[in-house]
Every structure is written in structure tokens, then in C-alpha cells.
Amino acid sequence: MASAPGDSACICSTECAAEARIPASLYIDGVATKKSDEPKTKRAQRPEVEQLKVRRGREEKQALPPHLEAFARGDDDAIWRRERRGGRVNDPRPVALVPGVKNADARMVFEARVRRMQDAQADEATLGKELAEARLLGLWRAGNVVSFGALAEVALGLDEETAKRLSSAGRTALGLPERLSEAEIAVWMRAEAGLLEASDAGRVRLSGDRLVLSVPIEDAARALACAGRREAPLAEVALGPQEVLDRPRGVPSMASILERERRSREEG
């Protein structure tokens, strides 16, 4: 098929392309394509970023968890051992203001502590300590009040934000923990109720991990006897954390596995 003068070569077939001297490499499915005259632009190469190697000191390296370190030192059951906090109180009463505490004793402690907080309103530092102990004990429950904020508002006329600020300062000053278990609260309130039965001046405070009982010397014998009678039912309750071994049933200890492998090597 001839092309007219001035026209481009026919690209309808391979034979025509051969006449027009179109390279065979430009054919796609028997149809010739036209090579673009525009120069190809090169892609911009990303600048090479030099990798920084940070060497950390021994003290900055992340340490293994304690149970893995113990396992590496040879404690076979370290990976199965966990800590469980004790202090659960089995109190079957349908209505218990404070678990593990007689309702009458709980109200006695509530009323005495509310009086002390009201007497301390002139001194923010003392009031903060009283509020911190009340918050730690959950004292509002003993008076059948809905919350700590409601207790502060009803008993002291303080808004919840101010009461929490004062109690936080008091907790720091006394070094109190953030929370106590049910059994620890029951021990505290039972002891204080026993002292209050013998003397209005009796009180109990927490100093570090020690429960400090304070009562006038003339009332001490009766007060301690009253407190002892109340504490007797809690004598068998575990208060502190307990170690529990959670190795699944049927899984042997690592020592027995290593011993079995040693014997098999010796026999083989």
C-alpha cells in the first residue's frame, strides 16, 4: 500500500512498516508505535541518609524483667510464680457498711473521725492528714455517705476539689499508701473501735507499714482488751502479698526436664 506524498508511513501492518523502515521493536500486536522525541527525564534519586549507630551504656540498656533474671540465675519456677495481694474478707452479711467490720463499730469510727476533722478545720495541714486517712479508709461508707466528696461537703463544707487537694498533701506528709486491702481496712477500723469503746481519746494511725495505737495509759488495758476481741476473727486472714505458683498441671519443672535429658544422654 503506497503512501501519498507528504504523508507519514502507513502503520497498519508489518509489511508497510518494513517499507517505511520502522524498527520491529516498535510493534505491539502488529501495530507500530511512534517513538517519542521528548527526552526521558531521570527520576530524582533520594539522598542517601547516613545511618547513625547509637551505642548505649550498660546502665541505659533495658533490663530483663525480674522473673526472667531469676530464671536465668537458675530459679526453675520463676516464670510461673506471681504475686497475689491478700486481704480479701469473706463477709456474708447482706448489708455491710465496711466489709469485715461490725456496722455499729464502723459508725463509731465514722463519728469520731468526723469530729476530729471538724476540730482541725483551722489548721489545713492537720485537716489534710485527717482527710487523707478518711480517704484511705473509705470512711464515707461507714456513715452511709455516697462518696468522699459528699463527705467533705456535708461534714466540712468543702468542695470535692479542695478536699482532694488537702488529702493529697496529707497523704504525702504521712507517707500513706494509695490503697489498702479490705482486710487491712477492717483491722484498722476494728482496732480503732475497740480503743474508742474504752476511751474517746483512742485513735489508730498508719505509720509506714506499722499500725500505731494511741490511748491514755489509764484506759490502755481495757482498750487493748476491747481491740483484741475484735481482731481475733481476722487472725487467720492473710494481709500482705502472697506468692502463688501458677505452673500448669502436668508441666514438669525445668530441673526435672534437665535431669531427664542428662539421663537420656548418659544411657545413649
Neighbour order of strands in the largest sheet: 1-2
- Radius of gyration, rounded? 41 Å
Number of helices: 10
Major sheet characteristics: 2 strands, antiparallel
- Structural shape: flat
How much helical structure, as a percent, in the residues? 40-55%
Q: How much of the sequence is in beta strands?
A: 5-15%
**Unreliable stretches:** 1-9
Structural category: mainly alpha
On the 0 to 100 scale, the average pLDDT is 79
Order of helices and strands, N to C? HEEHEHHHHHHEEHEH
How many beta-strand elements?
6
Cα end-to-end separation: 89 Å
What's the quick description here?
This protein is mainly alpha-helical. The chain contains 10 helices and 6 strands, in the order αββαβααααααββαβα.
Describe this structure in words.
There is one protein chain. Residues 1-9 have low confidence and may be disordered. The longest helix has 17 residues, at 103-119. The protein contains ten helices and six strands, in the order H-E-E-H-E-H-H-H-H-H-H-E-E-H-E-H. The protein has 268 residues and is mainly alpha-helical. The chain is flat. A hairpin with a 2-residue loop joins strand 1 and strand 2. The protein has helices at 14-19, 66-72, 103-119, 124-137, 139-142, 148-156, 160-174, 182-198, 220-231, 254-267, and strands at residues 27-28, 31-32, 81-85, 203-207, 210-214, 241-245. The protein has a domain at 103-235.
